[in-house]
Design brief:
This protein is mainly alpha-helical. The chain is built from six helices and two strands, in the order H-H-H-H-E-E-H-H. It has one domain: dinb family like domain (Four Helix Bundle (Hemerythrin (Met), subunit A)).
Length: 167
């Protein structure tokens, strides 16, 4: 069975590179950046900017919780797509610092997440498979959908392969 490190950190890094690629294509599209930045699928959903922030935070917090490494605060102050790309780069740098050995034996560790109206307790393994990865991919997919909806010329391979996508 792959380690918790193997199924999280390399996956997060690769997909964050893909998210960065999507934002680079959005910037190059010539579409109104503020319109992209504030795009929502529905009035009660977060805009693109928050989708990117949450994807970054999900990856970062998984490393923090699983490897018990010091958290790295990132204020949600981005005002442009370029600043969102910088946040992605900072998140990737943080993830690259994670020591694979710190994840060893954490599969059965009890990890409790506290939200304003609820508490959720997971094993390290279930945190990854039942919460973190689904949440991470949810926000990545929403970001992709928002950019597509607004007319950015991206396709499935941009989401899957990032900068390695053809064309």
């Amino acid at each position: 069975m792959p380690s918790l490190y193997a199924i999280t950190i390399p996956v997060f890094i690769q997909k964050l590179h893909s998210l960065d690629h999507l934002l680079a294509k959005a910037i190059a599209s010539g579409l109104d950046e503020q319109d992209l930045f504030e795009a929502r699928l529905a009035p009660d959903m977060f805009p693109l900017s928050r989708q990117v922030q949450i994807a970054c935070d999900t990856a970062k917090l998984a490393a923090t919780r699983l490897a018990q490494i010091g958290p790295r605060a990132m204020a949600d102050e981005e005002k442009s797509l370029a600043e969102l790309r910088e946040r992605i780069a900072r998140t990737i740098a943080y993830l690259e610092e994670a020591d694979p050995a710190a994840f060893e034996g954490r599969e059965t560790a009890e990890i409790t997440l506290e939200f304003p109206n609820m508490k959720m307790t997971f094993s390290g393994q279930s945190l990854v498979t039942d919460f973190t990865l689904p949440n991470f991919y949810f926000h990545l997919t929403i970001a992709y959908a928002l950019l597509r909806m607004k007319g950015v010329s991206i396709g499935k391979m941009d989401f899957l392969a990032g900068a390695q996508a053809p064309g």
